[in-house]
Structure prediction request, 123 residues.
Amino acid sequence: MFDALKTAGALASLMKNKDQLKAAGDRVRQRLGEIRAAGGSGGGAVRAMVSGDMRVVSVTLEPAVCMGLTSGREQDREQVQMLIVEAVNNAMDIAKAMAQREIAKEAEAMGLPNMPGMEGLLG
Prediction:
């Protein structure tokens, strides 16, 4: 109960200081843009890099995967597409977890540790 009151007090104080809140938001946005999370699929045959602000930075395909694209077979093309989707989703999951940790660190620095709902902030 006292933790909830403490958090409410910190939140009320923070709402009065909009400059501090804006600066914290700017710091978080900058750090999220700098975060890089790597994901993969197909035993590393397809790799994806995603930033902490959930933007795909790169997708890398091993030569064998590219050969699957040139075979002309629909099944091969669909398999490559699935590998790309899996790699990007894997990288996104890792990036979300990293971003949530960054947001939680900033919240704690502002006197708002363990705020309910923070774990679902990024989806």
Notes: The beta strands are 36-41, 46-51, 56-61. The longest strand covers residues 36-41. Residues 74-109 form the longest helix (36 residues). The chain has a mean pLDDT of 84.
